[in-house]
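[[Encoded backbone]]
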Amino acid sequence: QVQLVESGGGLVQAGGSLRLSCTASGSIFNINTMAWYRQAPGKQRELVATIYSSGTTNYADSVKGRFTISNDNAKNTVYLQMNSLKPEDTAVYSCRMIQSSGYSYWGQGTQVTVSS
């Protein structure tokens, strides 16, 4: 079994920064992809950023140039550095781990609120 625990959310003013962390524990092996998603009230869940085992990263157009996804394999942790935050970035942010087998696991989510 795998557990993912996010942290780092909170309330920040527009233009500010936050760094989210997602730490994995349990049967961690053959990780293919780590990703951050977000879901705002009344909206569908959105893929924000992805990092593959190769190190390749992808970002949603809405966060390109402002958010950076990275990982620390020694700590089994993936990060999302969020700069120049906007009110429209307000959402619950969740991380997801996808193994090579296709199994995926989700964290419980952390709230990010950006005030104008």
Summary: DSSP finds no helices and eleven strands in the chain.
